[in-house]
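User: I'm writing a short report section on ligand binding and want a predicted complex to refer to. Could you take this sequence and manganese (II) ion and write out the structure as tokens? A short remark afterwards would be nice.
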Amino acid sequence: MQRKTLTQFLVEQQRREAALPGQLRLLIEIVARTCKAISISVNKGALGGMLGDMGAENVQGEAQKKLDVIANERLLEANEWGGHLAAMASEEMETIHLIPNRYPKGEYLLMFDPIDGSSNVDVNLTVGTIFSVLRAPEDVSGRAVTEEDFLQSGRHQVAAGYAIYGPQTLLVLSVGTGVYEFGLDRETGSWVMTQERIRIPEGNREFAINMSNQRFWAPAVQRYVGECMDGKDGPREANFNMRWTGSMVADIHRILKRGGIFLYPWDSRDPKKPGKLRLMYEANPMGFIVEQAGGKAFDGPHRILDIAPTGLHQRVGVIMGDRAEVDRVIDYHREAVDA
Ligand code: AHG
Ligand code: MN
Ligand code: MN
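Assistant: Sure. The structure tokens for the complex follow:
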């Protein structure tokens, strides 16, 4: 059986009743093509001079890796000229990136985390690229795009996905019709479908959290993880396994494939930061994918995709994966408030 390529999949989606618009198809093709180029750079590592720090900090105050900057530049350059975008925003840029006047402006807004898990790059562990697509407000063609135009709740995303640069390079994508996975065939240079309509397997007793932050967690998270740790003798009456890669893309991908729950919850380390992960280009796109795969994504009490954003780089608590496990954490948050 011949496997379907990404292009074939997108053309099929374009011909459906609720057709995928041509500009959105072009956008996804260009992002996917850029992820191929990023994958090649990640693969080269030290041999291509790709490892190490830039010697600068991004707007988040985090040390930039060379690959953060290279991947960011690639995504900007590739998406400027196609006429499909009104503007872009990224983890690595303080403010939005407008489409230069020499190119036509399009209907969409693109946000990305060029390299997720970049602290893993230098030690040859899995990293990824996350992206989120919104429609630009209708009046935008006659005026300059502003940061406010991006501040739409995640439920308005028209597409989201990630590339994962692991033992295989994969692209995981949703345009709101389920979640599809494509593998990069390095011999033909094509993205080839490897799984369709991914559903998060239910009931896998495996959690992902950075345990070193335990003393800063809220009581509801303390209770949830504590009960997992109690295993067979505790209230869950089952032993749990734990995995933490330090790359959200890798942890969420594992959950998509074999189930479990991911938590990077609110903690009390820095009162100014309501979490570590960023809403617009980490939590929203990954939340969209998880929901499209039958899972749930909450910040504790609230659905992530319903949060009304207030800033491009806003942070948020993240609890996502197997819906029954996420429901349990939501209940523990509600019970902690009621108590
Ligand atoms: P980024 O590399 O884009 O800044 O994101 C890193 C994120 C995420 O991928 C991961 O889950 C988390 O940071 C890991 O943080 P800790 O080092 O605090 O565990
Ligand atoms: Mn990230
Ligand atoms: Mn990043």
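A remark for your report: The helical segments are 6-15, 22-44, 66-80, 219-230, 248-258, 279-292, 323-338. The chain is about 30% helix and 25% strand.
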